[in-house]
Design the sequence.
C-alpha cells in the first residue's frame, strides 16, 4: 500500500494525502478525517516521500534526456528550465543515452538528489509498449511524480504530455495524395513511440486514400544529412515523388539527394521535415516542416507538474496538436 493507493481509495490527489500526513491547515477537517480513515483501514504508514511533499521540498526538479547534443532535446531542456524558473524551481540534468540499462541507472542516480519531481524528455522512455521495458519508471513514480514529454506510458504516477504525431502525419500525407503525389517516401531514424505514431499516421493515410503501403518506401537511416543523401542515391531503382521525414535532418538529406539527381523541388518532388528546427530555414530551398510545438509541450508539462505538486488533479495524458509550416519544398 503506497501514497497513490491511499489517494485513489480516498478519492483525492497524492498531494492532498501528503498535506493530511503533515496536518496542513489547507485541508478541511472533513477531508482529513476521510483520508485518515482510509490510512487506518489499510494500515498505511507514511513514508519520506509523503512527508516530503509537504515539508522538505528542495524546489528542484530532475530532467533526463537521452542526448543533449540533439537539437530537439536541447531545445526542450532549455524550454523546461525556463518554465521551471518562473515557478522558482531549479533543475538537475542527466543525459542517459539510449541504452536501456543506462536509462535505468540515470533514473536511479537522479532520485538520490532529493528532487521533487522528474521530467523525462523524449518518447524513447516510453519503451516498446511492454510493461517490462518501463518498470524502472513505475518504480520512480512511487517516489516522485514523473512527467513524460512526447511519449505515453499507462502507469500510476506518470503523467504524459505529447504531440499529436499521428494526426499531423495523417493530415500531411493525405494532403500530398490530394495534390497528386502517389509514391510517398517515409524516412525515419528511430523505433520510438513517437516514430511509431508518425508511421501509423503515414500508413493509415495511404490506406484511406486507396494507395498501397510499399515497405520499400519506408527507409530507416541515421539522422545524418549526408548519410541520408548517400542512402537515397544508392537506391537507384527506387521511385518516389514526395518525402515525409520524422526529423528535419532527414528531410534536408532528401533535399541534397534531389539536387544531386537534378530533380526540381518542389515540382518533381515534395519534401517535408519534422520539428521545424533551424535546419528548415537554413536549407535551400527552405524546408516545409511540421512544428511539434515543443515549447508548448514543455510549458504544459511544467504547469501540470506544479498543479500536481500543489494538490490539484491532473490528467494523465494531454495531447498538443502539431501544425504544418509551409515553405518552398512543397507546392500544395
Sequence:
Amino acid at each position: 500500500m503506497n501514497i497513490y493507493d491511499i489517494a485513489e481509495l480516498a478519492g483525492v490527489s497524492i498531494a492532498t494525502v501528503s498535506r493530511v500526513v503533515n496536518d496542513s491547515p489547507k485541508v478541511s477537517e472533513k477531508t482529513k478525517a476521510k483520508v485518515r480513515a482510509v490510512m487506518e483501514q489499510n494500515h498505511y504508514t507514511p513514508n519520506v516521500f509523503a512527508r516530503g511533499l509537504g515539508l522538505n521540498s528542495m524546489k528542484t526538479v530532475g530532467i533526463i534526456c537521452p542526448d543533449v547534443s540533439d537539437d530537439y532535446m536541447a531545445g526542450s531542456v532549455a524550454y523546461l528550465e525556463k518554465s521551471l524558473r518562473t515557478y522558482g524551481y531549479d533543475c538537475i540534468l542527466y543525459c542517459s543515452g539510449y541504452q536501456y540499462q543506462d536509462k535505468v541507472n540515470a533514473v536511479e542516480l537522479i532520485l538520490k538528489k532529493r528532487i521533487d519531481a522528474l521530467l523525462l524528455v523524449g518518447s524513447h522512455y516510453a519503451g516498446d509498449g511492454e510493461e517490462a521495458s518501463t518498470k524502472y519508471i513505475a518504480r520512480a513514480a512511487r517516489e516522485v511524480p514523473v512527467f513524460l514529454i512526447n511519449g505515453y506510458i499507462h502507469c500510476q504516477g506518470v503523467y504524459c504530455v505529447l504531440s499529436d504525431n499521428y494526426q499531423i502525419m495523417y493530415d500531411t500525407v493525405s494532403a500530398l495524395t490530394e495534390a497528386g503525389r502517389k509514391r510517398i517516401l517515409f524516412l525515419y531514424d528511430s523505433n520510438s513511440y513517437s516514430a511509431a505514431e508518425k508511421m501509423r499516421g503515414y500508413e493509415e493515410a495511404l490506406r484511406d486514400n486507396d494507395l498501397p503501403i510499399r515497405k520499400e518506401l519506408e527507409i530507416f537511416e541515421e539522422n545524418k544529412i549526408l548519410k541520408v543523401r548517400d542512402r537515397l542515391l544508392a537506391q537507384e531503382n527506387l521511385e518516389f515523388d514526395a518525402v515525409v521525414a520524422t526529423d528535419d535532418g532527414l528531410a534536408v538529406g532528401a533535399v541534397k539527394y534531389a539536387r544531386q539527381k537534378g530533380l526540381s523541388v518542389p515540382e518533381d518532388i515534395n519534401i517535408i521535415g519534422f520539428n521545424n528546427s533551424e535546419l528548415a530555414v537554413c536549407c535551400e530551398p527552405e524546408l516545409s516542416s511540421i512544428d511539434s510545438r515543443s515549447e508548448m509541450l514543455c510549458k504544459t508539462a511544467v504547469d501540470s507538474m506544479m498543479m500536481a505538486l500543489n494538490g490539484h488533479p491532473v490528467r494523465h495524458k494531454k495531447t498538443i496538436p502539431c501544425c504544418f509550416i509551409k515553405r518552398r519544398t512543397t507546392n500544395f
